[in-house]
Amino acid sequence: MDPIALIVTALASGAAASATDIATDVVKNGYARLKALIARKFSDKPEVVNAVVQVEQKPSSESRKGMLKEELEAAGAGEDDELLQQVKLFLDLLEKNGFQTSATY
Questions:
Q1: What ranges in 1-105 are assigned the alpha helix state H?
Q2: Residue 40 counted as domain residue
């Protein structure tokens, strides 16, 4: 899976998981940390942060995920090693807590 798709998957999966009653505080906190990292790294790119919010509101929307992918690509997010490391850690956390993702890396 390419780096941008991995980030989109993590954000959409995190939003969906966090909205459930079964999400643990660990999952919710992990998702919040990932969003905070993105907000910090792309504070000069409000379109990225807005796209994250849009996916969070409707994580199953392919068009919203497509918009997020486009904004992340334009911002160069796929080349950010710190972000990619956090994404992988968060996806592992989701899986360990019983949430299925389609991520492969």
A1: 3-18, 25-41, 46-57, 62-75, 81-96
A2: yes
